[in-house]
Every structure is written in structure tokens, then in C-alpha cells.
Amino acid sequence: MGRAGRGAVWALMMVFTAAIGQRFGPPATVAAQEISSPIVVTWQTSDGGTFRTIVEDLDAIARISDALAGDGIAGVPIGTLLDGDGGVNAPHAWHLENVTIADMTIELCDGTPAMIDADLDTWLTSVGSFCPWSAVVIAAEPLAPVVDPTAPPVEPEPSPVPDISPCADDAGSDEPVVVTFETGDPGDSDTFQAVLTDPQSIARAQNEVALGIDCGFPNGLLIAAEGERNAPHAWELSGATYTDMAIEACSARASEVDANLDYWLGYGRYCPWSAQAIAIDPLAPVADPTATPAPAPTDLPVLPPADGAAPVQPVPEITPEQSGGALPAPVQGAAPHATAQPVAALPNTGAGGATMSGAGHGWWLIGAVAFAICSLPRSGVRFPVGELVPGRRRSP
After folding, report:
1. How many angstroms separate the first and last alpha carbons of the chain?
2. For residue range 34-45, what is the model confidence (pLDDT) as tens digits?
3. Do the Cβ atoms of 225 and 240 come closer than 8 Å?
4. CA pair distance 375, 386, nearest whole angstrom
């Protein structure tokens, strides 16, 4: 080739290089990687057709990242053309592997996805690669792992067992309790009592008593009070709840509160850091000293009357003073005497309704004596007793 021929070739190369530089611009700089490898990139050619490729090359990924942040031009994608969609390029029956980004390629591999779809065998056998000059980046996303349907299922990792502290704020009893707290150091401590109503605080106190661990300390308002709640102290903790943190100014031993009660009542809050629950008891109701006691029953009951008779009022027991002397003591083993009741006077009539004679009164006297003898305690002595009929004598 003569000098003129070499000059022509040189001129053509310059024109081609200028055209490439105008089309793609200067080589893209490798920016800070914003997309992890590998990725699936969606490309679009000048005819509007799209295809997808897997990109693993870090330089290519960096240029694609810059293109997504700009005008979408990353360079010319080029890769080996293979049969099948490769898992990412459906509905096309082909895909690219080992994709990189180039600034210049031969024209033989330039084309569009539609051209490959129309003559796939020729592209696979005669060309073997694809490098569409007009392709621009329109999307990129991380590559999802491909699941092998023939692989055995992977057992999931067991979830770690959460570390549940025994002092967790589980709901405790809904019933108020009285908790005995110990403050100070072992061997040199004093106690006080506080009422807890908060279920979570009650649960913490129960765990402290049952497990002997530290689950926090009580915190509440310090008020003056003298009673059975916090005896012998002249103060009590109102609205107490468990807490894990409080200012040190409200922390002290129970004996220190007793020694400086005026100061603590003025301060108004108590949160002994060293307090440890040592006993829990149900909250017993406190009797109201101002309540009026119920009066004791004083009225004696009225005995039910017999049919057709007037009501009989009970007769109180006669005291020795009323009787003028001491009453006889009951005999050992004898049944208690019934309370004396008034006896209605019987009509003094004899047989046929006549008035009883003197003899009749004699029989009544004998009957009264017999009744008195029968009422005495029996001690082995037997008396003959007959049936007494008013106004007449009955043959034995």
C-alpha cells in the first residue's frame, strides 16, 4: 500500500475514533460502588427492544451505577451469546454471559434483541456474541439466588431463644399486697413495709422473694402516717412502684428516714437503692376507728302463742338479789332448768263443771308436790307417780 493508501486508512481511523468519542464520550470513571455484585441489568436498544443480563464485573457495575445516576449511557455491553434465557432474559430464548462494558467493539456483534430473535441460529453459530452499540441502562437490581428444584430443602436456622430476665415486667397479681423491704447491708439492715398495687411491680417483688435476686427498688411519695401499715415507723410510702433508676437524693435506709423525718417529709420522695423484698403478704383491710359498732340485741324474743291464747312474754332469769338469797346451784350432770314461765290459772271446777271443793284443792296441792319431786335430779330414788285429774279421784 502506498503512502496515499496509508493516509486514507489513517484518515478513516481518525473519523471512526471521533465518531466513537462523540457517541460514547470519554471513558467513565469508576465511581464508588453503590450496587453490590452480582446484579441484573435491564438494557434498551434504539428500536425500543429490551433484554436483561447478569453483570458481575465490578468495573462494569460501577459504570452502570454512574449511568443510572446520569443519562443511562454506560458504554457498550458485550458478552458471550448462549442458548436459553439464562433465568433472567425471558421471553427471549438466549442470554449473555461474562458481560463487560466496552468503549469500542467490532460492528459484527452490533444489533438489537429483535434481530437475534429472528435469526437465533445464525447468531449462535456465526457471531457468538452480542454488543448492541445503542444500548442504555434503564434498571438494575441485585441478583436473586436461584433455587435448585432438585436440591434438598434447607432446614432453617433455629431462632435464638430470647434472653428473658427473671425480673421481666410480667403481669403479677391484680390484688394489692404488702411487701416487707430490707434496707442497708447484710448484717446491718432495717426494714419497712409498703403497699404495691401495680401488677408489674408485684411480679418483680415476687421474683425477688422467690429467687433472692435484685429486680430494682421501690420508688414513691413519702407521707406521714402512723398505723399498722408501716409500724413502728411514723411514715409510709404512697403509690410505690418498682424502678431501675432514680436520683441518689431520694435513697436512704429506713432508719435514716426515722432519724430525719422532718427533712424527708419536706423532700417528699423515697427510693432506697438497697431495698430488697423479703416477704409478701395480702393486704388486710384496716378497721375504721371512727365507725360506730353495731348494737348488741337486747330485746328478748316473744314466744309464739298457743292456738287461741294471748302471746306469752318471756320472763327474765331471776338473780339472787331479786330472790333475796342465793339460788341453788345445778346438780352435776343434771339438765339445765328451763326458764320459768307463767302458768295460766286453771278453772277451779270439778266434774260436771262444778266448783272444786276443799278436797279438790287438796288434790291440787298433792299434784304440785309430786310435780316438784319429779323435777328434781334423779339419783337412784324412785317415786310412784300417778295421773292427776282435777276434781276427781281415779282408781288405780
Report:
1. 182
2. 556 789 999 999
3. no
4. 15
